[in-house]
Structure to design on (404 residues):
């Protein structure tokens, strides 16, 4: 069986219990019915069988996934896992939540279905994540309390932060201290922002200046290398880049995959299939089909006209953009289609964060070179090391060689 992993971003609802300014969801009360879950599961398993894939990652998101309640997830996990086991396949479940609806009632299913961990999101400073009543400050306070409760229950929490103008103004040092010091996190990830939906409708600082953003990212990378890298703090995507440039197997984010269409699809509560959550919620012109109405997911993905654009994008970029002459092409592949589409109205162009990526790749390369150099250096006893340090000129070499 192929070792390829297939990933599904599954949105059981687009409903949500908070009101972020930059939300691109069309929030609707519609929820994935337990009666339709076996059919959805069957379609996914048929596709895994057709493609000879053993494992399927399910990323449960929303809207807000927790509005479905823990009992709904308990049932969903059992239905899906049982069906997969009967066909010699496996689902691995991940949960992404805003945490606002978290309570102790979730602990059982989080430990059982999600291996005791979850992903959530918070920005620094938080200006745009808001409760329906109480605004951003109340959101931060409630979210921080829920984070502490989840951690106290033994749940591993990873946090995604979306950068905005306020983050750049705060600077990388304060940003890093907030996540690692104030919140005590050892695992967080920074994402570049993009306006889902028609770009001009979104308010706020989401069109960031590339050179300011590059300076911020490089500054944050340097702080993490100096303080976090060797002490167990994981900061994405820097950690994956260090793995890549030091020759380890790297789990790079989707924006730098060879082609995200090889690995991901997203399915919403109504069965709509698209490339990822950003597409399924914002761009109907790029829907691939409907998993409940089309009996064959494999055929849908192969024949969808909309999907062909994703498949052909890397080739088109190499022909039409300067990516071919870029030394980072093999790691970047032209970046993210949705970041490009939301900024330019076409995905057949390179990612508008190109210059930011180049700066971050160069920074990663420099740090990786230092790591490899340090690893290659001989381990020497203190006295010998003193001699090596002195070993600059011919006389000193002589002295060292003679052992004096
Ligand atoms: S938590 Fe997500 S779905 Fe809910 S309002 Fe915020 S961005 Fe939108
Ligand atoms: S469009 Fe962008 S965000 Fe969506 S899966 Fe592809 S690379 Fe990831
Ligand atoms: S860094 Fe820029 S030029 Fe290089 S591959 Fe990525 S998008 Fe293309």
């Amino acid at each position: 069986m192929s070792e390829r992993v297939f990933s599904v971003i599954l949105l059981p609802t687009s409903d949500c219990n908070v009101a972020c300014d930059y939300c691109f969801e069309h929030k609707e009360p519609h929820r994935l019915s337990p009666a339709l879950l076996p059919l959805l599961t069957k379609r996914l398993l048929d596709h895994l069988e057709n493609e000879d894939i053993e494992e399927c990652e399910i990323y449960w998101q929303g809207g807000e996934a927790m509005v479905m309640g823990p009992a709904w997830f308990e049932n969903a996990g059992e239905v899906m896992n049982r069906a997969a086991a009967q066909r010699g396949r496996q689902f691995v479940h991940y949960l992404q939540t805003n945490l606002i609806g978290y309570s102790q009632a979730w602990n059982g299913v989080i430990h059982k279905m999600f291996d005791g961990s979850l992903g959530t999101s918070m920005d620094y400073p938080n200006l745009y994540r808001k409760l329906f009543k109480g605004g951003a400050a109340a959101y931060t306070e409630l979210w921080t309390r829920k984070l502490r409760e989840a951690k106290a229950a033994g749940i591993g929490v990873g946090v995604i932060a979306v950068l905005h103008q306020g983050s750049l103004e705060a600077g990388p040092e304060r940003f890093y201290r907030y996540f690692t010091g104030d919140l005590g996190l050892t695992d967080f990830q920074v994402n570049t922002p993009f306006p889902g939906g028609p770009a001009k409708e979104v308010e706020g600082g989401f069109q960031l200046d590339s050179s300011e953003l590059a300076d911020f990212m490089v500054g944050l990378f340097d702080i993490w290398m100096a303080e976090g890298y060797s002490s167990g703090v994981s900061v994405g995507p820097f950690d994956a880049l260090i793995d890549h440039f030091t020759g380890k197997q790297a789990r790079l984010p989707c924006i730098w995959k060879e082609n995200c269409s090889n690995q991901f699809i997203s399915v919403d509560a109504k069965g709509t299939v698209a490339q990822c959550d950003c597409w399924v919620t914002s761009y109907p012109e790029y829907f691939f089909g409907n998993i409940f109405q089309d009996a064959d997911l494999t055929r849908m993905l192969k024949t969808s006209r909309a999907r062909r654009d994703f498949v052909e994008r890397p080739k088109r970029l190499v022909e039409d953009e300067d990516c071919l002459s870029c030394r980072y092409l093999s790691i970047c592949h032209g970046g993210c289609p949705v970041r490009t589409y939301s900024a330019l109205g076409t995905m057949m162009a390179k990612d508008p964060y190109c210059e930011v990526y180049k700066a971050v790749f160069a920074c990663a390369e420099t740090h990786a070179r230092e790591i490899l150099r340090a690893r290659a250096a001989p381990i020497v006893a203190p006295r010998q090391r003193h001699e090596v340090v002195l070993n600059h000129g011919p006389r000193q070499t002589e002295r060292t060689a003679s052992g004096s």
Q: What stands out?
A: The chain has a mean pLDDT of 90. DSSP finds 16 helices and ten strands in the chain. The pocket of iron/sulfur cluster (ligand 3) is lined by residues 322-323, 326, 328-329, 332, 334-335, 350-351, 354, 357-358 (CB under 6 Å). The longest helix spans residues 354-376.
